[in-house]
Design goal:
alpha/beta, Rossmann fold, 2 domains, six-stranded parallel β-sheet
Length: 467
Amino acid sequence: MSRLIVISNRVSPPRTESGAGAQGGLAVALAAALKEYSGLWFGWSGNKIEEFTGHIDMQRAGGVTTATVDLEEQDVDEYYNGYANRTLWPLFHYRIDLAEYDRGFGSGYKRVNERFADTVAPLIDPDDLVWVHDYHLIPLGQELRARGLKNRIGFFLHIPWPPSRLLVSLPNHQELVESLLAYDVIGFQTEEWLESFRHYVERELDGRVDEDGTVHVRGRTVHVAAYPIGIDYAEFSEAVETPVAKEACERLRGSAERKRVVIGVDRLDYSKGLAERFHGYQRFLEKHPEQRSEIFLLQIAPPSRGEVATYEEIRENLDELSGRINGEFAEVDWVPIRYVNQGYPREELAGFYRAAPIALITPLRDGMNLVAKEYVAAQDPEDPGVLILSRFAGAALQLKDALMVNPYSPDEISDAIFAALAMPKEERIRRWRGMIESVRGEDVVAWRHAFVSALENAKPAVAVEPA
């Protein structure tokens, strides 16, 4: 069987006993794929250096070989903090008002993708399958083709693909999308994002998309499809039963003092709808004063991308908003919001999920949202909690038995919280059974098998020169 070469912006070393549970969903999924297919995981180390040398740090742990490179500070500023997270991320999450178009960002993005291609190409054998991940590395397949690689190369986008009417606001948008034609397989999280891509190909590139997902554009054929990512269900189910998870569960239940916990776990990002969530919870407190002392919101929101000014503004806004809500509604023996700016290992989070009768997951736009699936997987089958989920999360297409809300509507969030609190056990069990079937059946194993199988069956590519 061919080796699998995974390429992503950052590389997370495989779990060790001392660091168990610290990885995110994508890191766990990719590490599992590499263990199954063998191969290599290549990407940025996260370190900055004065001058790029192309030196590769090779390590092996947990059955996975990683290869990382350091980047210059200018690379990080322009490629990562700039084009990836100040241009593409807001645009792809429908926040055109926050997208910044700086020519220097685009130059840095192109330069780092070229450096990645120069560095990783010698590590790739002719029979290897190459799997490139996410918006940071859209042009990488094209750069690898320019260096003579004829391997089967696939690309998976973990975030939404925006509608054409938004994407065309990006300078050189056509050049960016055309670079995707160098891949043999392109995967999206949902049919909605796939449809947006198809629409762009047909409208802006005069391409044709067959019913089987084959895209025909300018002499190239590319297979496109939706491959919804899941959690590692077996691994997460084991995590729920660990001593760490059980201790975390009892810790939260003990501190709740019989009050019902509404939990939210999100990276600190404007796409997660945290301010809107707080306003919806505030509306609930206003409409149902009799429930105030019976409930509290635990919002876990570890900071991210601190070097991007927008994220510091988000943190300041949420600090002010949570403080104002607590100041208005708190009693001497009760605080309505516990707002925590730190992350926790997965085993602890599993315990927190089990202890919370309600999860409030309300992103404004999300490629998938694995927290929603983890919450479902962590529940007690005999007494499960209720998932309140944004209809704009990719997971909403699979978790149809959640209480769906429009995250922009404080009243819908308020009504959903009230309904969750009043929901009979029989209905909670019925809804949970519907969702756990999806979480179990459409897990990360099914995801990676579906994508890699499509890549293995793709027709060998021909070289594609950069536009």
